[in-house]
Structures are given as structure tokens and as C-alpha cells.
């Protein structure tokens, strides 16, 4: 083989090897992670990690060990009755499940006031008759697959989907005023209280979280702001 032919063969081999390396590192054929993210960037996995954590994460999503002792037999209640429950003296981001409220499931037949998605994509609905209102939270089970894998994961997932099936898509970053009534089932949960609480939250920090059931024959979005003052 002539010197020129050998040089051409070497150049061809280098180009082929380089193309293979590019494909493996970041091209379309490269392997994807189980969550669908590029292993080199971890983009989708990073988004899920940012959303799927937070204060009392395992407790509020029934993923803690004590969740096995939660009674799933719903107790009929009302918003005023829940607001009258004595709150714990202190709740922190790492507080374990609290007796008795957080070991009970409640059912409300209640007016709907407003709804929205939080930045982590959870849906929050305000229930009751203002100013006596309480939050119910529907976790984002599409991004946070570990919630679905929990013992009550399917119930949480179905309830979350039913909200937007029946009431319409909830906006992110602003409230959608709602009208109608709903049957809502969820586990009692005391959120960490912050100086600037979201509108419609119970002063005690009590909410239903997670929601395990949602049904309504007349939920709909209407014009108007929430809170009423804007």
C-alpha cells in the first residue's frame, strides 16, 4: 500500500470512530435514562427531583412507614369542624406523622371556591364558604412516579386526574375561580405554616393531603378573582 493510501485509511478510521463517539455521548441514538432524560444532562430527572420533594414529603404523600396505620375509612366532616381541630404546637419540615388527625381520612361534601397548580405541579383546591375555607391537595403523580408506587398511589392518581377532567385545566401561578359542589376525600395533614400562606389556607395549617377521591357533577370555572379583593 502506498504512503498516500495508508494516510487515507487512517483518516477514514478516525472519522468513523469520532462519529461513533459523538453518537454515544449526545446524539439521538444515545441511551436514555428510565425517566426519559439524557444521561449526560439529566434534564428531566433534575426537574422531577426538584418537584418530588419538600416539607414532610413522605408524610403528605402516604409514603412514610406510619402510613400503613392510617385509617382509610372516611369520616364525614365539614370545613368548620376541621377548622376547629386543635393544631400541633409546632410542625417542621421533618415532623413525623401526627396523631390523631393525620391518621384519619375525611370526606367533605362542600362548595368549590378556586383552584390552581403550584410550581411543583400539585393541584390545590379551596373548599368551603369564605372566609371559612380549607385546602385539599392533589399531588402530581405524572412527574412523581414514587407516589403512584405507594399503597394508595392509584387512588391519588385517579383523584388528581378527575379534578381537571371535571373542572378544567388548572392554571399555574394564579387562581381559577370555581363554582359547584364536590365530594372530596383526603387524609388529614398539617402543613408547615409560613408567614405568607397561600390564599384560602386554614389558619391551623390543616389540609387534606393527599386527596384520595374527587367527584362533582357541576364543577366549572367562572370569571372572577380569588381572593375577592384580587
**Mean pLDDT value:** 84
Rg, please? 24 Å
Q: Describe the strand arrangement of the main beta sheet, using strand numbers.
A: 2-3-4-7-6
> In which range does the helix fraction lie?
25-40%
CATH architecture of the largest domain: Beta Barrel
- Give helix and strand order, one letter per element, not per position: HHHEHEEEHHEEEE
Uncertain runs:
1-44
What is the CATH T-level topology of the largest domain? OB fold (Dihydrolipoamide Acetyltransferase, E2P)
CATH-defined superfamily of the largest domain: Nucleic acid-binding proteins
**CATH structural class of the largest domain:** Mainly Beta
What's the main sheet like? 5 strands, mixed, barrel
Helix count equals: 6
Distance between the termini: 83 Å
What is the total number of structural domains? 2
Shape: globular
Computed structural class: alpha+beta
Amino acid at each position: 500500500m502506498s504512503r498516500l493510501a495508508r494516510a487515507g485509511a487512517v483518516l477514514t478510521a478516525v472519522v468513523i470512530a469520532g462519529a461513533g463517539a459523538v453518537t454515544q455521548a449526545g446524539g439521538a441514538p444515545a441511551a436514555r435514562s428510565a425517566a426519559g432524560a439524557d444521561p449526560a444532562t439529566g434534564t428531566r430527572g433534575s426537574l422531577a427531583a426538584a418537584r418530588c420533594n419538600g416539607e414532610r414529603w413522605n408524610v403528605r404523600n402516604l409514603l412514610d412507614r406510619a402510613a400503613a396505620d392510617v385509617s382509610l375509612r372516611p369520616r364525614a366532616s365539614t370545613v368548620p369542624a376541621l377548622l376547629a381541630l386543635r393544631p400541633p404546637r409546632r410542625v417542621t419540615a421533618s415532623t413525623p406523622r401526627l396523631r390523631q388527625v393525620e391518621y384519619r381520612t375525611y370526606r367533605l361534601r362542600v362548595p368549590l371556591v378556586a383552584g390552581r397548580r403550584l410550581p411543583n405541579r400539585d393541584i390545590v383546591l379551596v373548599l368551603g364558604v369564605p372566609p371559612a375555607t380549607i385546602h385539599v391537595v392533589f399531588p402530581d403523580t405524572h412527574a412523581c412516579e414514587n407516589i403512584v408506587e405507594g399503597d394508595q398511589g392509584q387512588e391519588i392518581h385517579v383523584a388528581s386526574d378527575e379534578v381537571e377532567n371535571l373542572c378544567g385545566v388548572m392554571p399555574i401561578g394564579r387562581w381559577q375561580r370555581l363554582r359547584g359542589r364536590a365530594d372530596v376525600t383526603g387524609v388529614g395533614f398539617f402543613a408547615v405554616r409560613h408567614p405568607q400562606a397561600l390564599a384560602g389556607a386554614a389558619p391551623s395549617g390543616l389540609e387534606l393531603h393527599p386527596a384520595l377521591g374527587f367527584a362533582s357533577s357541576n364543577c366549572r370555572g367562572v370569571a372572577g378573582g380569588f381572593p375577592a379583593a384580587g
